[in-house]
Amino acid sequence: MAHKSPPSAERLQTFIEGHSLTVTPYLSLLSGAIGGAWDSFNEAIGYRFLPDTNSATLRKFTPPVDGAPLFLDYLCSEPATITYAPAGQTSETLTLNTDYWCEPENALAKHLPITHLEFERRWSGTRGLRGALQITAFWGAAREIPESVYQALLERGAANLWTQLTQSATGGVLGWKDGDRSVDYGDNRWSALNEKWTGKGCNYDRAVAIYRKMSF
């Protein structure tokens, strides 16, 4: 199952409560916790996993010289348009698979992002061509979040509230003693869960390792 957007605060609440933890006193913190998980994931992998908007947006590039490819921030679909518009000259709309090609070849069919473009035209220099390539596209590696990443974000979002959640669960007390009577609540249950969410080889770390920029 894939998801169109990161988990919501409500979805994080359901996830936390599904582990028998009380989150009600901290509802105002849920959005920040899951937002922080999403931001840290994008930072860790080195690019925006999803486009920032639901519409294609324009970015300008200087043409590459001597037949070099034009490396881009990742694209999750072919560019909507590419216009070649040198300053003071008539602009020209470039045609996919005639004037330029998306690379790696068949990337989208393999559910991988487009990382660079190859052009039929060869530029020998960039004088007067700064920003001449105007590319309108969806700037992100994917249009949906895989289930594995979605679950990893929920775990990291819950971990961001760890101190508050354990405070609610234990009341800040790990045990009490009254004469011959004593109760040791212990924190093994909570520490084991935190280890699952944040320890070595956790789902979040695996997701980062899979989607880190150098892996494409």
Average pLDDT score: 90
N-end to C-end Cα span: 22 Å
CA gyration radius, whole angstroms = 24 Å
Order of H and E elements: EHHEEEEEEEEHHEEHH
**Main sheet record:** 4 strands, antiparallel
Let me know the number of strands. 11
Strand content: 15-25%
Count of alpha and pi helical runs: 6
Domain tally: 2
Choose one word for the global shape. Answer: elongated
Task: Tell me the structural class.
Answer: alpha+beta
Low-confidence stretches: none
| Sequence of strands across the biggest β-sheet | 2-8-4-5
Q: What percentage of residues falls in helices of 4 or more residues?
A: 25-40%
How are the elements arranged and paired?
Blueprint: E1 2-3, H1 9-17, H2 30-45, E2 57-61, E3 70-75, E4 81-84, E5 92-93, E6 100-103, E7 114-119, E8 133-137, E9 145-146, H3 147-159, H4 162-170, E10 175-178, E11 181-184, H5 188-198, H6 203-211
Antiparallel strand pairs: 1-9, 2-8, 3-7, 4-5, 4-8, 6-7, 10-11
Helix pairs in contact: 1-2, 1-3, 2-3, 3-6
What does this structure look like?
The chain has 216 residues and is of the alpha+beta class. The chain has two domains: 2-46 and 145-171 and 185-215, no CATH class; 57-137. Helix content is 31%, strand content 20%. It has helices spanning 9-17, 30-45, 147-159, 162-170, 188-198, 203-211; strands spanning 2-3, 57-61, 70-75, 81-84, 92-93, 100-103, 114-119, 133-137, 145-146, 175-178, 181-184. Strands 2-8-4-5 form a four-stranded antiparallel sheet, with no helix packed on it. α1 crosses α2. The longest helix has 16 residues, at 30-45.
